[in-house]
Amino acid sequence: MPRVSVSTLSNQFYCEMQVHLARTHSLRTESVELAAGAAGHAAFEAEAEEISPEEITRAITAGEPLELVEMPLSAELHGVRLVGRADRIHLEGRRARLVLEFKFSGRRELFPSHVVQVEAYGRMLEANSFNTERLLHCVAVLPRGRKVTDGLAADIAARALAAAGEGLSAIDNRAPTGQPDPLAGLTFRRVDDEAFGLWVFRHHRARAERDLAWALQYWSGQRAPEGTVSRGKCKACPFNAANLCDAAKAPPDGRYAVKRTEGRYGVLHVVQPSVAKR
Ligand code: SF4
After folding, report:
1. Is the minimum distance from the CB of 247 to ligand 1 under 6 angstroms?
2. How big is the CA angle at 243 (ends 242 and 245), to the nearest 5 degrees?
3. What residue segments make up the domains of the chain, in order of their start?
4. Distance between CA 165 and CA 104 in Å, rounded?
5. Which of 91, 173, 185, 244 has the smallest number of CB atoms closer than 10 Å to its CB?
6. Cα(151) to centroid(ligand 1), Å
7. Closest residue CA from atom 2 of ligand 1
């Protein structure tokens, strides 16, 4: 059975061809976004206390509230094993209340890949017999390099729950043709703080199912990978800079640094413009 991580699956909503080329070529990329994300997540994890699987099971059985950081999840969906670690999940016994994902970016914006990532965790919680009827999703975007203070994650979770308490209306169930747009018809509440931006929305099984079914068709071999139609994405694409994509819609940014390492398994190393030496 194919095994796919949630982050890889969500990247299909940026450009599926990039995901495909990453499987078929050895290419390493360096970017400010990747480095900021790794540092920010490490800081959030450092705040958490370790808890054993037995303690988690006991608390869930007792119906106690739990706030879990980096909770591993796994589920078989459409013939594919989906695996991932949610940044933060709030449970009350077997009721899933909140899925929270942190993004570290210079752009305070909600992207389709963000929505699919939390939808996937919601769907995996369902597959693991958690009740998701009142599940909320929250995507928190923090600026790159932001110093993470104690309790910031808890503050963000509280703000998300309060925002949802002010009301979220129904969402659109239109069936898609081709690649679905996870943002189309999504009703959310946005909170802007000096330190972060938040998007809060409800888990909706039909929407999650629609988005995941499309993405998993690629992994189960039902269709070929689709390239983005965005010229801007192709211009900024490291696979395009390395001349690996036949589906590119625009030439690559000429400032990319590309070098090929020597050896039996030659690896292409692509440095994105923001960190490339000019
Ligand atoms: S060049 Fe464009 S279509 Fe090809 S992988 Fe990159 S972003 Fe996708």
Report:
1. yes
2. 115
3. 3-14+31-219, 231-271
4. 26
5. 173
6. 39
7. 234
